[in-house]
TrEMBL record:
InterPro entries: ATPase_NBD (IPR043129), Carb_kinase_FGGY (IPR000577), Carb_kinase_FGGY_CS (IPR018483), FGGY_C (IPR018485), FGGY_Carb_Kinase (IPR050406), FGGY_N (IPR018484), Xylulokinase (IPR006000). It catalyses: D-xylulose + ATP = D-xylulose 5-phosphate + ADP + H(+). This is Xylulose kinase. Its EC number is 2.7.1.17. Belongs to the FGGY kinase family. Keywords: ATP-binding, Carbohydrate metabolism, Kinase, Nucleotide-binding, Transferase, Xylose metabolism. It comes from Devosia elaeis. It comes from the Bacteria. Substrate binds at M81, H82. Residues 259-449 form the Carbohydrate kinase FGGY C-terminal domain. Pfam families: FGGY_C (PF02782), FGGY_N (PF00370). One of its GO terms (biological process) is D-xylose metabolic process. Catalyzes the phosphorylation of D-xylulose to D-xylulose 5-phosphate.
Length: 513
């Protein structure tokens, strides 16, 4: 017997996830497929777009195989934001995609800010500063550093929009991911054309932008065969993962806070106006709902801290594959709150919010002979949450409440990490069904809105169900308040040292040269 479902696909940084949702908003199946990130130079972060396609095909086929007889009625797309996927006129990928956590383009970002008339003027045009992670600076970097490739670039797509192209043959984006280029007029939900022209960027390389629930194309015959789908299925706009995850967590109306522990760490809230961005310290983007906006702080290292440590621990154990994430978290649970006075600064990939500093670095501060692996892993987990708390403080002028956090992403698999969020923020932390599937849940929901199953985002959001709850322990407030105060004091003290440690000679082992 055939039954209907919506398919959400999330092109994450570490894996592609697929999720099937039935029209009553029950999760039917999920499946994911991993792929690697490439770091060819210090501060560079790239991926081969073909790995997203192979990952999406494996994730979709895996999810479908768990639901024999399912008929997909619409597809929604989610993906890591800001990644520059440059294509030529025949849609051939010109170079590996430059990802959201890449730090190579600080010079171009400074030049763009100046050309725009300074930070205030840029904020007036886009509501956002140009950050090193954003697509606009990467386009400028290619123009300067890859002059043989740049003139061939006809399309600059975000990762999920490249998947859209491969699924439907259509070049398109939607307002949330367009916001993350730094070239989008977030208040008016359209490309910031005067800015784009002033920067000398050809506006034609930027895809047409739609609202997130608009149908942008249909699965082609060729893609149907490659993905195990039927041709003709409508594909809606979808959203950037950091934005669409709020819908997937049921957070679409102003009030709740939402966090995500994926590769990145994200603290977000829905807004009903395009709020003034406080000194450009946070990200204010278009939300999935056409009458909503989205404020967030992003740390470039969230749950990705654990996979970094896992790789190191695996090397020390002679490459033995038994250092699992679960084992690391289990070790962390043996260390007390505050990790015996050990703090970890989570800036392995540089800083974004509240410190937009490509030179920022990670640091264990306070090590003694009493500290062991359990304390080190615990301080990593706590450092990721202090990072979220620091973003909350940076967003103070937005007047966001803190009565409850809804959390999502791969890191939410750990009860310890969810409890830490509750204890460090001093509020309840809940998960909703499908929380681990990242943006794939929100993508399936927006697909349903696009084909009329739900009237709007608020209606769809109300159908999410709470699955877990951690209440905060008041007895830990003093420890965590003290530790967080120390955490906040450290970056300003270490900033100059971080910059000096970034001397390229140190990486090459010839700092005197
Ligand atoms: N059991 C677990 N406990 C805590 N964290 C986990 C667990 N399993 C996976 N993770 C973390 O989840 C992260 C991946 O989350 P995910 O939401 O899939 O990220 P992305 O969308 O960026 O690919 C990894 O960096 C890993 O550290
Ligand atoms: O840079 C941002 C949002 O501004 C990140 O959220 C990326 O979009 C990557 O997300 P994950 O792969 O970690 O979910």
């Amino acid at each position: 017997m055939r039954f209907e479902a919506l398919l959400g696909i999330d092109v994450g940084t570490s894996s592609c996830k697929a999720l099937l949702l039935d029209p009553s908003s029950q999760v039917l199946a999920t499946h994911s497929a991993d792929y690697p990130v490439l770091n060819p130079h210090p501060g560079w972060s790239e991926q081969d777009p073909e790995c997203w396609i192979a990952g999406a095909q494996a994730a979709v086929r895996g999810a479908l195989s768990k639901c024999p007889g399912v008929k997909i009625i619409a597809i929604g797309l989610s993906g890591q934001m800001h990644g520059l996927t440059p294509l030529d006129k025949d849609h051939t990928v010109l170079r590996p995609a430059i990802l959201w956590n890449d730090q190579r383009n600080a010079d171009e970002v400074a030049a763009i800010t100046e050309a725009a008339g300074g930070l205030e003027s840029l904020l007036a045009q886009t509501n956002n500063p140009m950050l090193t992670g954003y697509t606009g600076g990467k386009i400028a970097w290619m123009r300067r550093h890859e002059p043989e490739l740049y003139p061939r670039m006809r399309h600059a797509l975000n990762p999920k929009d490249y998947l859209r192209l491969r699924l439907t043959g259509e070049v398109a984006t939607e307002v949330s991911d367009a916001s993350g280029t730094g070239l989008f007029d977030v208040r008016n939900r359209q490309w910031a054309r005067p800015l784009i022209e002033r920067l000398g960027i050809d506006p034609e390389i930027l895809p047409p932008s739609h609202e997130s629930d608009v149908i942008t194309g249909r699965v082609s015959v060729e893609a149907a065969e490659a993905f195990g789908l039927e041709p003709g299925i409508p594909v809606v706009g979808g959203g950037g993962d950091a934005v669409i995850q709020t819908l997937g967590s049921g957070v679409i109306d102003p009030g709740d806070l939402q966090t995500t522990l994926g590769t990145a760490g994200i603290l977000a809230a829905a807004l009903d106006t395009p709020a003034v961005n406080p000194k450009g310290r946070v990200q204010v983007f278009c939300n999935i709902a056409p009458d909503r906006w989205h404020a967030m702080g992003v740390s470039l290292d969230g749950a990705g801290l654990l996979t970094w440590f896992q790789a190191i621990a695996g090397e020390l154990a002679d490459g033995a594959g038994n250092v699992t994430i679960e084992k690391l978290v289990e070790r962390a649970s043996k260390s007390p709150p505050g990790a015996r006075g050990l703090v970890f600064l989570p800036y392995l990939s540089g800083g974004r919010c509240p410190h937009p500093d490509p030179h920022a670095r990670g640091a264990f501060v306070g090590l003694t002979r009493r500290h062991g692996d359990a304390d080190m892993v615990r301080s990593l987990l706590e450092g990721a949450v202090y990072g979220l708390r620091d973003m909350y403080d940076a967003m103070a002028s937005l007047g966001l409440g803190r009565h409850r956090i809804v959390t999502s992403g791969g890191g939410t698999r750990s009860t310890l990490w969810r409890q830490m969020q509750a204890d460090i923020f001093g509020c309840d932390v809940v998960t909703t069904d499908g929380a681990e599937a990242g943006g794939a849940m929100g993508a399936a929901m927006v697909a349903g809105i696009g084909v009329g199953i739900w009237a709007d985002a608020s209606t769809a959001a109300r159908l999410r169900r709470t699955e877990t709850r951690c209440s905060f322990n008041p007895e830990l407030q003093e420890t965590y308040t003290r530790m967080f105060t120390i955490y906040q004091s450290l970056y300003p003290l270490l900033r100059d040292s971080f910059t000096q440690l970034g001397h390229p000679g140190f990486d090459a082992g010839v700092a005197g040269a």
